[in-house]
Specification:
alpha/beta, 7-stranded mixed sheet, globular
Length: 248
């Protein structure tokens, strides 16, 4: 049996399994083998191309022409077609049309847009009724932990007290979210929040020498990440938070 396509990075393993299951369920319910997937801010196609390899009709909207050029090269190398369109997250209905996707990906976008509320509201308008929105965002609590473990204790304190989850002007990320903040944002966009998963609970804390140097360590770590992704405590210290939402 041929192994199904999947992204190469272990960092995306938990999210990939969730997306694959959602698409399989939606395809079965609709009777369509190929669904319409929109990747908002999908860059060079790290998820878009594997999804296209599964037979889905994938569109990537990104503001960067260079990223879209990289996407087209990656798709060509994989022998699949992915539609590449230039645009911003807060204007998606004008780019792809409303109610045009069965699944919309919003991964590592809300941290950087000018207005997360407007961006997510725009995304909600592009998904079909009953369709799903996959939201992946940086976790504020994890940033506190990571800065403290690195010995930057003042930075950790600032992240903890900052409304944007930042440690100051030198922080390269404009904002981070807690699970509660992310859920509130999704609900405000008119979407129903489902499960919230923790992504990379341990991956960014384990020395790379252990993962690369010990036989089977990478597979064992991936299995552990899957097991703790829904743990009621551990998921809240993951580097990223993943929420699967549905349009009512």
């Amino acid at each position: 049996m041929t192994e199904r396509p999947r992204p190469r990075s272990m960092r995306t393993a938990v999210v990939w399994e969730i997306l694959r299951d959602v698409l399989d369920e939606s395809a079965k319910a609709s009777g369509r083998s190929g669904l319409d997937v929109l990747d908002a801010g999908g860059g060079t196609g790290g998820l878009a191309v594997p999804l296209a390899e599964l037979g889905h009709h994938v569109t990537v909207v990104d503001s960067s022409p260079d990223a879209l050029a990289g996407l087209e090269r990656r798709a060509a190398e994989a022998g699949v077609v992915v539609r590449a369109l230039q645009g911003d997250a807060d204007g998606l209905p004008d780019v792809v049309g409303p109610d045009s996707a069965d699944l919309v990906l919003c991964h590592s976008v809300l941290e950087y847009v000018d207005d997360p509320v407007a961006a997510l509201s725009s995304i909600a308008r592009t998904v079909r009724p009953g369709g799903a929105v996959s939201v992946l965002a940086a976790n504020q609590v994890a940033a506190v932990l990571h800065r403290a473990l690195a010995g930057h204790f003042e930075d950790a304190r600032r992240v903890l007290s900052s409304a944007q989850g930042r440690w100051g002007e030198g922080d390269p990320m404009p904002r981070r979210f807690t699970s509660g903040m992310l859920a509130e944002l999704i609900q405000g966009a008119g979407l129903r929040v489902g499960e919230v998963h923790g992504v990379r609970v341990f991956t960014d804390l384990v020395p790379s020498g252990i993962i690369d140097g010990e036989r089977g360590a990478a597979d064992e770590l991936a299995a552990l990440e899957k097991a703790v992704s829904m743990h009621p405590v551990l998921k809240d210290v993951a580097t990223q938070l993943h929420a699967l939402a549905r349009r009512r």
